[in-house]
């Protein structure tokens, strides 16, 4: 169905849209999306991995875009803080929340992921899909999110095919660095210029690299409901790494982060 009905003019004015939202009057925000009915089909792949009842949960949707996932979490009872740095997406999200009757369940804020170092709140569920590969400092972002996550992290990032990682050593001697070139060693490719016409696509990792990054940041992977997607619980961060991170976070916020 094309963008029509009482919302049609607003849809056109607020566009272009990356999230195809289905609105109560039957209109859609991106009916001709090149990825199909996105992100509805992506949600269908992972929704069973998210608790049906999120009543009383506080959720944080980082890189919320027009708010599709925020709205789905809100429908399950969560109070959602949806953050993005793009003002167009935030305008879209606030408008769509009003159309869907979810204004009291989803609060939109303009915030960059690194600014979460100053975020005092903690969240039961952190939603972090389709963002990490757009960041110049993805591991720092995961470290920040670990501090905010009480129960679950849902994480997705673009990958490239690679052999499954074998048993990796706990340490590697300097004269053994040739092992890093092995096909199964966790890797992340740096994109200096552009990928898919998008200059903000900075990194593409192997699945084993993403998994290692999640573990390093203090997450335990509990399921992999779809390709490139992980559901994680917070775990203990290595004590030495934790001390280093506290120093980093203290520098970001301009004082003692503890």
Can you characterise this structure?
The chain has helices at residues 8-14, 40-46, 68-75, 87-100, 138-148, 207-216, 239-253; strands spanning 58-62, 79-84, 106-110, 123-129, 149-156, 188-190, 203-205, 219-226, 229-234. The longest helix has 15 residues, at 239-253. Helix 4 links the parallel strand 2 and strand 3 (106-110). The strands form two sheets. Strands 3-2-1-4-5-9-8 form a seven-stranded mixed β-sheet, with helices on both faces. The protein is an alpha/beta fold and 258 residues long. The model has no long low-confidence stretch (mean pLDDT 93). The protein has one domain (33-163, 180-253): Vaccinia Virus protein VP39 (Rossmann fold).
Top keywords for this entry?
Rossmann fold, two-stranded antiparallel ribbon, alpha/beta, 7 helices, globular, seven-stranded mixed beta sheet, single chain, 258 residues
Show the helix and strand layout:
Layout: H1 8-14, H2 40-46, E1 58-62, H3 68-75, E2 79-84, H4 87-100, E3 106-110, E4 123-129, H5 138-148, E5 149-156, E6 188-190, E7 203-205, H6 207-216, E8 219-226, E9 229-234, H7 239-253
